Amino acid sequence: MVKVALLIAVSEYEHGLPSLPGSKKDIQEMERVLRDRNMGEFDDVKPLLNPDLVTMQIEIERLFAEGRQKDDLVLLYFSGHGIRDEHDNLYFATRNTRQNQQRDVLTATAVPAQTIQGFMNRSPSKRQVLILDCCFSGAFAKGLSATGRGLNSVPIQIATLLGGEGRAVLTSSTETQESFEEGSVGIYTRFIVEGIETGAADTDKNGIITVEELHEYAKWKTQAARSDMKPNFFPVKEGYAIRLAKAPIGDYKLTYRKEVELWAQRRQGKFSSILLSALEENRKKLGLSPEEAEKIMAEVLQPTQEFQEKRLLYEQNFEEAILLDFPVNEEIRDELRYLQHILGLKDIDVASIEEKFNERKFTSAGAYFERGLKNYEKKNDEGAIRNYTKAIQLKPNYSVAYFNRGLAYHNLGNYQAAIEDYTEAIRINSEWGTINLARAYLERGIANYDSGNKQIALEDYTQSINHEAKSSRTYYERGLTYFDLKDYQAAIDDYTQAIKLNSTSYELDEATIYFERGLGYYDSNNKQAALEDWNQASVLKPNYCLAFYNQGLVHENNKDYQAAIQAYTQAIEVNGQWESISPSEAYYRRGLCQYELGQFQASVEDYTQAIKINSEFDLAYEKRGDAYHALENRELAIENYRQAESLYQNLFKTTERQRVRRRIRDLEQQ
């Protein structure tokens, strides 16, 4: 009469199945509690990690056959991938289990459950326990039967030690369910081990943990952690009564723990002040310290707390989803179902969460407006428009909703729709103060500007200023429009006013206003004022490469080539945002200045950098040809002129092409 166990874990797979790192920890934990003389008291426990197909089958057959006697207790534990075929037959994956091209498992490379059932049926042992922590493990019960040999009577002493004869199959899931790891071990295994180690599975307090008690304990704790998992128990004959492990008798910690477990199960982990008071008195009676009791309480309630945390996480995500769209669209619903699956929540759990969000609360005009804001903040303009539209349908005079929908339309480039919404918001003006009207005219002006209606944009900006004369942004936007209409003095005046107002409101990036005013001065032929503004822009924003570049243009125009070179160098080195031009232009213009100073080699290097950035830079090739010519490098000069000629031809630049052809001809005749 012996107790023997084979613990199989397959954590690594050679042919594409996902690894299960927790399986290795599973058998280590099982081995520890089964070997312990104060717990499992097994005579022989053999761990088998990552076996191949043949090894796994041989070891299972040996477990049930070699040297077995009628009164032996035999336990087989498996942690790994369970696989189900189209006929609902169960297989256990091994290290070398393979998949076909459709990624279906080749069942010939896995161990069939029917094979294990055959080993069990032929075994002389009449006490057999099978613990399966794998997907679809409940399918093992298909075709389950007990051998008819020797089931007549059980000697009293054997029954006392090991319980009744029979077979018990404990599974972590049903025949259609997946099982899950949590942390470093399988969830079901975690509570099998806990039930044995703490003795908490000994529900009748007789010092013995039967297979049925252990399963019921692990099942309750598993479902407290993941409500969607449904561990199953399949006893045959008196298999439920097989005695698997010992539990301490008279252990006050265990006594207290069982009381906490009992009430936690009855109250689903929610303890009232009455229960807490009763448990506190029980703690004192048993002589436990507050720290010991607190630790036990935390261990018992951990699965329930984990479950509540998962419910809360789902609730937070659901609330976030309906704040964007109500009811949620099918795409979001699919994502919520996936989250539910990962968190291990039942449909009933999810339903109870979603019912908390009253439909009435989320279908008012205000609720749709709030969802519009949320979508807009997340840059989901389509979602914002959808929700603002529903708000407007429920409340036709909702001017703020019209205005905000206009902003969303504008972001999408639908300027006409934006203009119409701003216009309607201005017309209704039911809930707006003066400042908001000023903003509405401003935004409509920007929409008109972006759609090419610059004269109408000017009118809107002026209306905005009439309602609120202290907005630097409105003066700035009107200045841009005047500039485009070539009314440079009006643009300069508006930029100046914008700078003045911005000094207290900080509404805009002041460097940008100086830069734009510099453009107005430059185009009105006041180059010195332009230079001063671009200098100020680069002081306010030291990485303003365009401001440095434009400084270079003024210096170059004044034939101050050294100052121009310095400005272009700063433009290149500050590594800022170039926006409308390429840094190749800065290299090119610096090359021109180097050439004017007779620094021909430096000029070549700058043109080369420009060409590296823009390989189609026709002028750079031509000017590099000039520099090579100045360096008396005839071959490289001709080569660059020819490259420039080819690019000019492709771009139909006839005059430029003729110019470089003449230079090529002159050089070839030398």
From TrEMBL:
InterPro entries, per the entry: Caspase-like_dom_sf, EF_Hand_1_Ca_BS, EF_hand_dom, Pept_C14_caspase, TPR-like_helical_dom_sf, TPR_rpt, Ycf3
GO molecular function annotations of the record: calcium ion binding; cysteine-type endopeptidase activity
UniProt-listed Pfam families: Peptidase_C14, TPR_1, TPR_8
Keywords: Repeat, TPR repeat
SUPFAM superfamilies the record matches: Caspase-like, TPR-like
Parts forming coiled coils: none
Domain spans labelled EF-hand: 202-224
Name recorded for this polypeptide: EF-hand domain-containing protein
Species in which this protein is naturally found: Chlorogloeopsis fritschii PCC 6912
Phylogenetic placement of the source organism: Bacteria, Bacillati, Cyanobacteriota, Cyanophyceae, Nostocales
